[in-house]
Amino acid sequence: MDKIVVTGNGALSGQVPIAGAKNACLTLMPATLLSDEPLTLTNAPRLSDIKTMSTLLQSLGVEVSSLQDGKVLALASHDVNNLTAHYDIVRKMRASILVLGPLLARHGHAVVSLPGGCAIGARPVDLHLKALEAMGAEMDLREGYVHASAPGGLKGGRFTFPFVSVGATENALMAATLAKGTTVLENAAREPEIVDLARCLQKMGAQIDGEGTSTLTIQGVDRLHGATHPVVTDRIELGTYMLAPAICGGEIELLGGRRELIGAFCDKLDEAGIDVTDTENGLSVKRRSNAVHAVDVATAPFPGFPTDLQAQMMAVLCTAEGESVLEEKIFENRFMHAPELIRMGAQIDVQGGTAKVTGVPRLKGAPVMATDLRASVSLILAGLAAEGDTVVSRVYHLDRGYEHVEEKLSAVGAKIERIPE
Ligand code: UD1
After folding, report:
1. What's the gap in Å between 125 CA and the centre of ligand 1?
2. How far apart are CA 372 and CA 351, in angstroms?
3. Most buried residue among 2, 138, 152, 400 by CB atoms closer than 10 A?
4. Of the listed 25, 118, 266, 318, which one is catalytic?
5. d(CA 257, CA 245)
6. CA nearest ligand 1 atom 20, residue
7. Residues with CB under 6 A from ligand 1
């Protein structure tokens, strides 16, 4: 397994291009299952999670062509010949559950293994199933698989999510596009990835109102057609690289960055003494003085502070002036990066879903282990500002969600290299 070695190298400067969003692409790809006409996605990120979704779709009979070095994905579902998503593929990635709604909506039947994914808490899929049941689906759980059927087709229904779920909203939204009648989804997720999915489905002929609000109204249509759609900018990759000059000093311009994707995060950076400026091509970030100030952070569904940036923010707060309190409200057990940061000299006290971080003047390089996708990049950020070498192992987590991380950081002056094993 590859390792990444990061050596603290002072201030950074230059530009970092931001890719298309992994999480948007992972829900746009299964949307192909809703139509027998081609779906082309441009601005796709080059990531192992995208390859896993391609493999899953191919196992169902979808034609997947990766063009322009992986930046364009051409998908065609005219010959779907298998309605079972097997455990072998699904266990690698939780987002695999997103084939359930589309398969069921178009074919009236689907069998999907219960997913695995990042080890950040229990992460059940009950809301996905309940939302589809509200559209008339019947669910049977047997031997680790969900057997879903809607023999006469899905029917429009009303479902109120008891709490916000991004994936369950996506599954229900896709399924509802082909259900007979009107579906109303309340307390739906409002993430930019949901808006992007709705826009793509609308191009395919779906009738959706309310995207970006907590009520989605979908008028089912008989069939959807092909479309070409650019994947929205990855706000999590954006936020991650915005934190590099926050922790190391210097100034970085994030090409393609947009403030509206990440408003609450920008507000928090401002509070911590980090300036975010709109530029012609994106956003530019630099800290106002030598150290950032401690801030309190509580994760929340969009438009709140994203849970997927909590680990990276913690890395920055490890060297802030004062004491910060981070509350993780979305996932249980999402502080696995804390013990690794402590190995680098950070002072962190985790009690349940709350972590108290007392800033220290400098972190020290150490061998550390990536435990999940966002944790892995938080250790790289910490390494950028640490004294000496930080060796991050298990970087396959990183490759799930960040393309060319070494190239992007080296280009702005970081000392970082991958050691293949
Ligand atoms: C998506 C993102 C992930 C991000 C998360 C929250 C993708 C591929 N992944 O994950 O990066 O961290 O949103 O922004 O887009 N839950 C249930 N039952 C369900 C579904 C969810 O209890 O049926 C719980 C989860 O365990 C979690 C919370 O609801 O505690 C929110 O999860 P959800 O929004 O569904 O996250 P994902 O869609 O899995």
Report:
1. 9
2. 20
3. 400
4. 118
5. 15
6. 125
7. 23, 26, 94-95, 121, 123-128, 165-168, 307-308, 330-331
pLDDT of 27-67, one tens digit each? 999 999 999 999 999 999 999 999 999 999 999 999 999 99
Tell me the mean pLDDT in the region 220-247. 98
Tokens of 271: 């509070």
Q: pLDDT tens for residues 155-213?
A: 999 999 999 999 999 999 999 999 999 999 999 999 999 999 999 999 999 999 999 99
What's the pTM? Answer: 0.97
Distance 407 CA to ligand 1 centre (A): 30
Give the separation between CA 252 and CA 272, rounded to whole angstroms: 17
Which amino acid, one-letter code, is at 141? L
Tokens in use for 384? 């950028």
Nearest-atom index, ligand 1, CA of 124: 18
**pLDDT band (50, 70, 90) for residue 120:** very low
